[in-house]
Amino acid sequence: MTTTRQPTPVPSGTGTVAPADSGTVNRAGTAAPAGTAAPAGTAGRPGLLEVDGLTVRFQLRDAVVQAVTDLNLTVHAGELLAVVGESGCGKSVLAHALLGLLPGNATLTGHARLRRPAGERVDLVASSERHLARAVRGRAVGLVPQSPATALNPVRTGRRLLEETLRAHGRTRREAPAAAERVAADVGLDPADLDRYPHELSGGMAQRLATALALAPDPPLLLADEPTTGLDRPLVDHTLDLLRRRCDAGGAVLLITHDLAAARRVADTVAVMYASRIVERRPTAELFAAPAHPYTAGLLDALPERAFRPVPGHPPMLTDLPPGCAFAPRCERATDVCRTPPTPPAGTPGRVACHHPLTLGAPA
Amino acid sequence: MTSTALAAHEVAVSYGGRRVLDGVDLRVAPGETVGLRGPSGSGKSTLARVLALLHAPEAGHVTLDGHRVAGARHRLPAAVRTRVAILFQSPRAATDPRLGLADIIAEPLRATGTPEERARARAAELADLVGLTPDLLTRRPHAVSDGQLQRACLARALVHRPDYLLCDEATAMLDASTQAHLAAVVTDYQRQHAAGVLLITHDPALMARWATRVVDLPPPPQS
Ligand code: SF4
């Protein structure tokens, strides 16, 4: 065994960090009041997925959990949008809401409109479970699950799972075998691995199989919920690159992750979620170079390649959120106005829910 | 050998006829953080389990401050067993879903006969150290987030003031802030108790920041 000193730290991810100021270019000239500005190049184009005012509440015996609050986001064809945040911030609930997989004590308001290949729109919030099961899940929205080991049917080989999925989505008995091999090859699965049962696959191979199954019906939108949890670095990168390639080929991906390095590696746009709300949504390079929301800045400071310093304090309970900015108890920049819902000053880049965003300087 | 360290000597382990570790040595001394690196399948987690006395190697052995430790963890005297603690990636797999967080933390103390009042006080002290607010302590695992549950697992790992703490991807599921906080808790603990830490992580930035020495495991032997 060799013993080595660790080489100089190299920031992970592929994006280069621009100098701290280069991301502050605000589109003030063209920007509508913050909160309505769209990412560059996509303004005005209708999205593949348009989430509008999505709100999810869970009724407990003696409390209401505010899991997702007034959430707006758009994902375009060819775009990879990452929703990042700590566990418990509501990001997984968002994924489940979009798939119609919320438990019975959930109430859902707002809209999540998905454009189908034929052009018509389906509102995922208003659709019946029957419709979601038949026409949406798998077909229109593919899911790369968090733990493939439990999501895969244990009594079928990978080949059989893939062929069944392909046939359920319109391939004939004759086409399915070749199509299965093609999809498998796309995700880097060996034909030999296809003849194994899920429990015979390593974590990485199981993840590739789960990804192949999600891709097989060729859904316009792919939802990846913490797809890299538990994988080794090379497999993490491989999985992320698969998602990226999917977008480069015109697909749309919504990546839900706690892993900032993952978001930075592949996302076009990053949305940061805190205490049930999206607090900042901006192009990836800009957000990493010059975060505007104090929570985003704190989260980036916590990275081991940056200050490795945690955000002070604790996230609030989702059963007991303050009326104004939920980050205020932990925020150095908080002032009295933060007791009212954050409305960013004009000229704030992207969408930033903060009264005193960083790139505009200190609060007056 | 009388050196103060937790060490694996010529350890060999196979699974289903396949060798994953083939005569591996590793030494973790007080105060150091040894980063363990290696490709997928190289046996990093297996080595951690061997060092935590959770898995008996087919060949080779583990020493604790020069003394050979053999046998299943639960059969070892508490005074030996409690000197080594391990923290895994998934807190859900490592906790009893029926227990509240306070009981999850205090359980190892009760198991070794600590008086109830002391156990409770110590659990509260550690909960505070790892950043769990009192209102969370009565909750059961399903009612807290992964980050909160992993905080409880860290508190539990520290209740007996172990001399060695093995972290097997312990922060891989956590957001950057929770990861940085738990790393700071471990580093502070390590400073106060001169504890040795083994760090397994796939994140090169975390490895570079946290480990004081890095050891590479060779790829698994071809069989
Ligand atoms: S609105 Fe106020 S409290 Fe909230 S993040 Fe901005 S400055 Fe901080």
What does this protein structure show overall?
The complex is a heterodimer of chains A (364) and B (223). The model of chain A is unreliable at 1-40 (pLDDT under 50). Chain A has helices at 91-99, 129-136, 148-151, 158-168, 176-186, 191-194, 203-215, 233-248, 260-266, 284-289, 294-301, and strands at residues 2-4, 49-59, 64-75, 80-84, 106-115, 121-123, 141-144, 221-225, 252-257, 269-274, 277-283, 351-352. In chain A, strands 7-8-9-4-10-11-12 form a seven-stranded mixed β-sheet, with helices on both faces. In chain A, strands 3-2-5-6 form a four-stranded antiparallel β-sheet, covered by helices on one side. By secondary structure, chain A is an alpha/beta fold. Chain A is globular. Chain A has a single domain, classed as P-loop containing nucleotide triphosphate hydrolases (Rossmann fold), CATH 3.40.50.300. Chain B has helices at residues 44-51, 78-81, 91-94, 101-111, 116-129, 146-158, 176-193, 204-210, and strands at residues 6-15, 18-28, 33-37, 59-64, 67-69, 84-87, 164-168, 196-200, 213-216. With 223 residues, chain B is an alpha/beta fold. Chain B has a domain at 1-76 and 194-223: Rossmann fold. Chain B is globular, with a radius of gyration of 17 Å. In chain B, α7 (176-193) links the parallel β7 (164-168) and β8 (196-200). Chains A and B meet through β1, α8 and α11 of A and β2, α6, α7, α8 and β9 of B. Iron/sulfur cluster (SF4) is lined by residues 293-294, 325, 327-328, 331, 333-334, 338, 342, 354-356 of chain A.
